[in-house]
Structures are given as C-alpha cells and as structure tokens.
Design a protein that fits this description.
- It is found in: Membrane.
- It is built from 4 helices and 13 strands.
- Helix 1 runs antiparallel to helix 4.
- Strands 7-8-3-2-1-13 form a 6-stranded antiparallel sheet, with no helix packed on it.
- The chain has 2 domains: 52 residues; 161 residues, Sandwich (Immunoglobulin-like).
- 2-acetamido-2-deoxy-beta-D-glucopyranose binds next to loops.
Length: 263
C-alpha cells in the first residue's frame, strides 16, 4: 500500500509531466508554419518547406517517375489587408529572376476571384495582364485565400523532366495589381533573397560546398549558396530544429517517469 507521502509524490510527478506536455504543445504548433496550413478536401501534399524569407510555405508532391510536380504555395501578398499578389517559380536556367518560369496568383480586379497566370520571365520588365507560355506544362491552376490570415494559396501542377531531383526555386510577393497585371514588387533584402534550392524528394539539402569545391569560373550553384538559400523541408521526418526542441522535453519526461518508478 502506498503511503500518503508517496501518493503526494506521485501527484507531483504527474503535474510535472502535464506541465511539460502543455508547454511543449504550443511550441510545436508555432514552428515553421507548415503544420498550420489546412487545405480544402482533396488537396494534400507529401512534403512541406517553410521558406526562409517572406513567411511563405511550399507544399508539394513529386512523382519522380513521371516528373509531375503538384504544389500549393502559401504566402501573404504585401499590400494592406493581403492585397497584391504572390508568386512561386522554378528557374531552370539559373538562380535569379531572369529565366524563371513563374506561377502568379492575384485578383485581376479588387472584386474578382483569384486567378493564376503563368509567366516566362525574360528580364526585369513589368508583367502583362495575360499569361505567357512556360517551359513546364501547367495544369490544375487555381488559387484561394485564407482571409483571416490575409494569405493566398496558389495551386498547380507542373510537368518537369522525369529524373529532375533538385530545382532552383524562387518566390515573391507584391502589393499591387495595376490594369489587371501584377505590379513590381519591393526590392528589400527579403525580396531579393527569396530563392533557393529545393530537393523534390523532400530531403534536407546539405549546406553549400566550400568555394574551393566549385569548378573554375564559379558555378551558378556556388553563387546561389548564400545563407538561407536552401530550404528546410518538414515532411515525414522531423526537422533538426524540431528534434532539438523535443530533446529536452523527452529528457524531462524520462526523468519524471523514472521518478514515479522509484517512489
Ligand atoms: C521564354 O523566353 C525565352 C526568351 O525569350 C525563350 O527563349 C523561351 O523559348 C521562352 N520559353 C517558352 C516556354 O516559351
């Protein structure tokens, strides 16, 4: 029979366990932002990466055999109340804006529903109101908004070359739509650094190789290796950040359980 003191100790140990669990939960919910994205029925994705700039997230499913890439890009357009546009692109020719094959979600007029245009970005000139053809056959383009968060979700499927494993991707938000076309975005640090490499398998990319490893003349991969370029996907496997946060919690739990077992 347990004495009154032992019962008290048990209760105290249980309180510790509960407190630890309760404090750990909000920490998980807030990490990265991927977990908070809830899509309409029928839209689910194998992987998600909380992108390092502009608070954006990319969810995707990649069929390595066929090259089909299905994405949902979530971001907050830069205008007041979420006005403006949001874009996600793959650049098969380099790591910058020139050459990017972009999907852009915006309301052609303030009262219109969201539309998605495609643009083959050939240089630093304004977008038109109409789509231009892109290299990756786009299908199932759609967009909706999460009004409460002022965010837009851009959906689409792109046909990549089978065998593609890593792509240069970039993302952007703008604050205005003028004459039915997305207007120029800001050129702040975060806007300019909103790019990186994406491993379609969902694996975390290793840090960029040291400059000495790059070939003569400097490859575009070495140039694109600025801090924050590589994204940290959070698919089936926990991200290192999450694992780090969970470790002390697990240790405390183990201690508490050990405490109960010894009393
Ligand atoms: C995109 O623009 C470039 C430059 O004008 C052109 O060479 C390329 O063929 C275009 N891509 C498509 C899919 O039209």
């Amino acid at each position: 029979m347990a004495s009154a003191t032992q019962q008290q100790q048990h209760r105290r140990a249980m309180a510790v366990v509960l407190a630890v669990l309760l404090t750990a939960m909000p920490m998980r919910a807030a990490s990265g932002g991927c977990e908070g994205d809830k899509f309409p029925a029928g839209r689910s994705y194998a992987h998600c990466a909380a992108l390092p700039k502009l608070g954006a997230r990319l969810h995707w499913t990649h069929d390595a055999r066929t090259g089909s890439l299905s994405v949902a890009f979530v971001a907050r357009p830069a205008g007041a109340g979420g006005a403006g546009w949001a874009a996600w692109a793959i650049n098969p020719a380099g790591d910058g804006m020139k050459g990017a094959q972009a999907l852009v979600a915006f309301r052609p007029s303030p009262a219109a529903p969201y539309a998605v245009n495609t643009y083959n970005i050939t240089g630093y000139k304004p977008f038109g109101a109409s789509s231009t053809a892109i290299a990756f056959r786009p299908t199932e383009l759609a967009a909706d908004d999460v009004a409460a968060a002022g965010e837009v979700r851009l959906y689409g499927k792109l046909q990549l070359a089978p065998g593609t494993e890593v792509v240069n991707h970039l993302w952007q938000v703008g604050s205005a739509v003028t004459a039915g076309a997305p207007a120029k975005h800001a050129f702040d640090k975060d806007n300019l650094e909103a790019k990186g490499k994406l491993a379609l398998s969902g694996a975390a990319l290793a840090p960029a190789p040291a400059p000495a490893a790059a070939g003569a003349g400097g490859s575009s991969a070495a140039k694109g290796s600025s801090a924050g370029g590589a994204t940290t996907p959070s698919g089936a496997k926990p991200s290192p950040a999450k694992a780090a946060a969970a470790a002390p919690v697990l240790m405390l739990l183990a201690l508490a359980v050990g405490f109960i077992a010894t009393v």
